[in-house]
Amino acid sequence: MRAEDISGELTRSFSHNIEDYPEGIVLPVDKPYRWTSADVIRKIKYAAIRHFGKKNLKVGHAGTLDPLATGILLVCIGPATKRAEELQRSPKEYIAGVTFGATTPSYDLEKEIDSHCPLDGVSASALRSVLPGFLGEQDQVAPLFSAKSVDGVRAYETARRLLREAQREGRTFDPGDVLQSSRITIYDLELLSWHERIVQDFTDDGLGRIRVASVEGLQLPTALVRVACSKGTYIRALARDLGEALGSGAFLSSLRRTKNGGFGIEDAVSLEEVLSALGPAAGRL
User: Fold this and answer.
1) Residues 6 or more apart from 174 whose CB is under 8 A from it?
2) Is 128 exposed, middle or buried (0-12, 13-18, 19+ CB in 10 A)?
3) How far is residue 60's CA from residue 50's CA, in Å, rounded to a whole number?
4) Which of 15, 24, 140, 206 is most buried, with most CB under 10 Å away?
5) Is 66 assigned a catalytic role?
6) What would the CATH number be for the domain defined by 3-90+263-277?
7) What average pLDDT does this structure show over 190-211?
8) DSSP string, the chain
9) What is the pLDDT of residues 202-257, one digit of tens each?
10) Do 92-141+181-259 and 3-90+263-277 fall under one CATH topology?
11) What is the pTM of this model?
12) Which 3 state secondary structure label does DSSP give 230?
């Protein structure tokens, strides 16, 4: 199903015959806040199996999104799952909220703030001056709390184990001891706006299972930055590096993926719309 077909298709129910979609279905779902990508796939797969009456129906995604991110999650149904790797290779675009003056172990708000940092060199003009240095091909160390695989084990599983061990023994450990750098490319970086407080522009439906660290009452400068980048780029790690470049610390306070696999955010459909199109009963979250 082509991108331009999706909005029209979702004004009515999908056909109940998956054979009517010989190339499968690719849906640019606007992932809800605090939902994991796996949560979304589980919900849609259950509804799609009931709708199409096909127990072995394949449903997957083309590139995961962090739980605290929103925006385009490409959901592939049926034969379209064969295109997942191709779609993952496409350039991506994000709008990132980067908050300066503090850090968290996960580089976002899945973990509580663990340190506060000086803000002497932090300003909109200072950030603009360092952005060009982050353009192009480069090595990036992923966040410890990520889905990146290290020797067949998810990095977040290793990170949690090492963090517990370090806390018990009263020591720290270097992320470089766990994760090696990956080659990524940042095509464009643009400072969209600068705020003297944390900006979190999203809708929380209250159904997500991922907790969020409280930042209520914190007055920390926050930049909204547009990032165009390659597959494998961790925007949380970019936030960390931007903080270090300004002689401070930083974490990702918001993230929205606005382009992926040839789809723009204007093409995105809500999870509620998808479930409704797969049957009235499935449409209830």
Assistant:
1) none
2) middle
3) 16
4) 140
5) yes
6) 3.30.70
7) 87
8) --HHHHHHHTTSPPPS-GGG-TT-EEEEEEEPTT--HHHHHHHHHHHHHHHHT-TT--EEESS---TTEEEEEEEEEGGGGGGHHHHHTS-EEEEEEEEESEE-TTSSTTS---EE---TT--HHHHHHHGGGG-EEEEEPPPSSSS-EETTEEHHHHHHHHHHHHHHHT----GGGT---EEEEEEEEEEEEEESS--------S---------TT----EEEEEEEE-TT--HHHHHHHHHHHTTS-EEEEEEEEEEETTEEGGG-EEHHHHHHHT-TTTT--
9) 778 878 888 899 888 889 999 999 999 999 999 999 999 999 999 999 999 999 99
10) no
11) 0.85
12) coil
Whether 20 contacts 255, CB under 8 Å: no
Q: Which residues of 71-83 are buried (b: 16+ CB within 10 A; e: fewer)?
A: bbbbbbbbebbeb
Can you give the pLDDT at residue 14?
87
Q: Point out the catalytic residue in the list 5, 30, 39, 66.
A: 66
Token pair recorded at residue 197: 């407080």
The confidence score (pLDDT) of residue 217 equals 83
Question: Hey, what CATH topology would domain 92-141+181-259 get?
Answer: Pseudouridine synthase (3.30.2350)
Q: Are 68 and 32 in contact (CB under 8 A)?
A: no
Q: How far apart are the first and last CA of the chain?
A: 25
* Mean per-residue pLDDT, 159-170: 66
- HSE-CB for 73 with a 13 A CA cutoff: 29
H/E stretch holding 158 reads helix 155-169
The domain locations on the chain are: 3-90+263-277, 92-141+181-259
